[in-house]
Amino acid sequence: MSDHSRRIVVLGTGGTIAGSSSEAGANVGYTAGTVPVTALLDGFSAPAGFELHVEQVAQIDSKDMDFATWHSLLLRCQYWLRQDDVAGLIVTHGTDTIEETSFFLHSVLQSSKPVVMTCAMRPASSNNPDGPQNLRDAISVATTQGATGVIIVCAGEVHGSKDVSKVHPYRLNAFSSGDAGPIGYVEEGKVRLVRNWSCYDAPFVGNTAFPLPAANEWPRIEIILSHAGARGEIIDTLIREKQENHPDAVAGIVLGATGNGSLHQALEKGGIAAQDAGIHVLVATRCIAGHIIPSLIEKLPLSTDLSPTKARIALLLQLLKDRKELVV
Ligand code: ASP
To answer: Which of 13, 20, 21, 63 to mutate to test the pocket of ligand 1 (most atoms within 8 A of CB)?
Structure first.
């Protein structure tokens, strides 16, 4: 490394971007998380003044993401962000849960440097893999002056962690930030911003430190979706486990509501009973765009602007903070 260049550290966690298939060129039915991140970056160079440094943190299909992997990834992000010569990070990740990992990191990391997550919808062994261009775009974003926060770069779009969701199972531009729209676009290696980098109340720079327990001690929080014919028996079972002091009883339940926070009456009744039994209950809409407009007659606490999966992470972190067990 030259004396004055700054490092961009690429952390590999697996996903389709690192996927391969035994059937030549196949775009479905491949195995995610098989190609080492060093191989994905073979032949890549950083812009003048920057150098790439590559590290494998995990090698998994992100549908199987777990607290232990989040913990390891968080520790490596913290370590590298603290190094003075590191300008930013890139994290390669599967598309299935990238929005959850990015929201988690965005909620707990403390830095002004960018953490750019990227992914792919076609495996590395495809005849037309999209991973290489996504990686080039991620490098462009990570080396852009002023970039900050944990962001997702895919198919030329730059998304913020709070608003982004995977909305398509197959097409290359599989992500949407709903009504908010992307933060910007990457065009020929240049970032064109349409919103500010720091467009969130989630305080990436101002996050406070709190202890993080061992991964097997994180609170259990279940998501239950409201739908036609919904029944309350699952909630009854969770309440019973809580009342019997089951070692793995839930600490919280996120109810995935229809529309503007409405719940099937069986789930609303179950949610109120769960709350009375000491379980933390949060209602979030399953609509993929917009947010819940609260009314005066809410019977359960709302997460107005997070998806059920992100509301679950917010509740998880809130419970850890309340237990004073989150120090990162
Ligand atoms: N199942 C894969 C994963 O999330 C899908 C992908 O990366 O596109 O790891």
So the answer is: 63
